[in-house]
Amino acid sequence: MAPTIMAIGVKNVKSNKLDQERQETTALQLKKRNEELETELKRSKEREEQMIQELQNTWQRLRVAEEAEERLCSQLGELEAEAVNEARDYHAHIISLMNQLSQAQNLLKGSSISSLPLLNYSSFLVIILDLYKYNFFLVQYNFFSVYIVQYWI
């Protein structure tokens, strides 16, 4: 019986060595694979951090652009309101000047040429020059108005 036991014991030692070599090979393969996975994980985390940083930078630029857009819209609204007010003021001023010019024309029609030096034409000249200043000059067809305009402009 002893030789049989010895033979079985030798066989177990050989199979243990083979199993151990296989385990070492498998362990080395697993270590190598683990290192590869760790390297890949590191790269992936670095890419993720870069993407997060880029996203934050883009988000910041977007926020700045939105704030600038809000400021520009606000300024544009203020300028539009100011332009409307100025247009209304100019329109009212033009209407007033046109009324004054109409009154002056009616005075001229009612007066004779011989009495021209006696009339006060300073307001009439102011009206004509004011209209000229606002680029709303109305062409006058009577001789006196054209003469005054040509003389003073």
Automatic annotation (TrEMBL):
One of its GO terms (biological process) is cellular oxidant detoxification. InterPro entries: LSU. Pfam families: LSU. The keyword Membrane does not apply. Transmembrane segments: none annotated. Residues 18-82 form a coiled coil. The keyword Transmembrane does not apply. Keywords: Coiled coil. It comes from the Eukaryota. This is Response to low sulfur protein. It comes from Quillaja saponaria (Soap bark tree).
